[in-house]
Each structure stands twice: as C-alpha cells, then as structure tokens.
Write a structure and sequence with these properties.
The protein has 267 residues and is of the alpha+beta class. It is built from eight helices and nine strands. 36% of the residues are buried. The structure holds iron/sulfur cluster and FE2/S2 (inorganic) cluster.
Length: 267
C-alpha cells in the first residue's frame, strides 16, 4: 500500500501516513488508529436462555483502552450493551472483566496490547452470578469481604490524638492497603470457581490489611474466621490472583503470611 512521509516537523521522527483504504493510521495528528473487532459475550436474562458472542467493529486510537472501545460500541452501535465503569482511571475497581481470557480492568488495558489483529474477546468475570452482558452480581464477593471484619478494631479508651505507628510497622501491610475491591483476583481463582463457599483472595487480602496493622486488636478474631473450613486453607497457591491484580499486590504472598500467622499463632 502507498505510504508517504509527513512533512510536519523536520526535527521530529518521520510519521508514516497511509492511503485512504488503510484504516490503521490517521492523516494529520500522528496518533495511530486501529480498526478492531471486539467479540463480546452478551446475555440478556429477559431474552436469552444462554450467553452468546457478538462482534462489533470500531476504529479507536492506539492510545485507547478497551473501556473506550466498549463506550464507543454502546454510544454508536448498541446502547443495550451493559457494563460497569466509573472512574476510568484504575481507581474505583468497577470494570474488571475477562479480556482475551485474562482478568483485567478495561480502563487500564490498551486496545493495542490485546492482539488487535484478531477479535478481542471480552466477557464477564467468572465465578459470580451473571446478571447481564459484562455485569455480575457482586454480592457474594462483598459478603466474603464483610465476613473478615475489614475495619479497625480497637480496645481501651479512645486516644486524644491520632494512633501513631512506626514506618516499619506500616510497611508490614502497605501492599494490601492498595486493594480497590475489583474482584479480579477472586474471580481468577479456580478454587473460587468450584467452591461456592471459599472466601477468595480479595477477602484474605483485606483481612491481611488489618491483621498486620499494629494499631488493630482484632487479629485473633479474623484469624479464627479464616481458619474455618472455607477460609485460608482452601488456597492452592496457583498464583492466578497475583497475576490478575491490576494494583500489583502480591496476593499469594499475603495469603501465605496469613497462613503462617495461623500456624505459628503470631502476627
Ligand atoms: S487484591 Fe488486587 S485483584 Fe484482588 S480485589 Fe484487590 S485490587 Fe482487585
Ligand atoms: S472504571 Fe474505575 S477502575 Fe476502571
């Protein structure tokens, strides 16, 4: 196909412009365009007995995220496409989904990193009841989260000033404070898929955040909860959770630390 060099700025690296029949690069702004197909697993409980796949072709910028492509489909092709999102910046944790078979946040996943030469598979996370299209019922996930008492438990008199903590003590649970409750870890766990009762990695991560907090007095209580049949011992150390976490939390390591605290009865 015919290409020509952009005359924009002689000091800039040359920009390749493509002829009109090519749909991957713009004339003018130098930002790559991609024409991609998203293959989305759709399910409307009012119409469908089973989920099915549908293809949508859109042209996006090379810098666009999968969330942007989904917004484009919803805005321009099919307004009934249903998915959760809020911040679009990897903070709220609402748009975890399976993209090409891996749990990711759609707002943090660049389209160009998804092998855009082939259809990009987008489906709901697994292991939670499917409600519609990419939306699952998160209640079982949050029920497990609530079960581990994810809040500071203290005894004695309220202090008159803030509860001080050394940097060393803070470092012990720093990693697990980063959780945004997106459920990417829990719904990538094969034990969670098959065992309807297992607390799942995210609940353990959030228990870890308080168990190892020197200002908290509820560690024993939480460890007893996680010592139950469907607690921490269900983990088979597959590392799926660590690979899935968009915040880079060492989820498996946190689970191991909770197991060790239980074995040695020491935090
Ligand atoms: S640990 Fe990571 S993957 Fe799991 S819920 Fe928290 S942020 Fe999401
Ligand atoms: S939309 Fe908030 S984390 Fe993706």
């Amino acid at each position: 196909m015919a290409t020509q060099l952009s005359p924009y700025d002689q000091n800039d690296p040359p920009i390749l412009l493509q002829s009109e029949d090519e749909q991957t690069t713009p004339a003018g702004d130098g930002i790559e365009r991609l024409t991609v197909t998203l293959r989305v697993r759709r399910f409307n409980p009012e119409l469908d007995a089973e989920p099915h796949w549908e293809d949508y072709t859109v042209t996006v910028l090379g810098t666009d995220r999968v969330l942007g492509a989904l917004e484009q489909i919803k805005g321009e092709i099919d307004g009934s496409l249903t998915f959760r999102r809020s911040c679009a910046h990897g903070v709220c944790g609402s748009d975890a989904m399976r993209i090409n078979g891996r749990n990711r946040l759609a707002c943090k996943t660049l389209v160009k990193d998804c092998n855009p030469g082939s259809p990009i598979l987008v489906e709901a996370i697994k292991g939670l009841p499917l409600e519609k299209d990419l939306v699952v019922n998160m209640e079982p996930f949050f029920a497990a989260y609530r079960d581990v008492l994810p809040f500071l438990i203290t005894s004695g008199q309220e202090p008159t000033r803030e509860r001080l903590q050394s940097q060393h003590d803070r470092d012990r649970f720093d990693d697990t404070t980063k959780c945004i409750l997106c459920a990417a870890c829990t719904t990538s766990c094969p034990v969670y898929w098959t065992d309807g009762q297992y607390f799942g990695p995210a609940a353990i991560v959030n228990a870890h955040r308080f168990i190892f907090d020197s200002r908290d007095d509820g560690a024993h209580q939480r460890l007893e909860i996680l010592n139950e049949k469907e607690g921490v011992w269900r983990c088979r150390t597959t590392f799926n959770c660590t690979e899935a976490c968009p915040r880079g939390i060492e989820v498996t390591k946190a689970i191991q630390e909770v197991k060790r605290a239980l074995l040695f009865r020491r935090v």
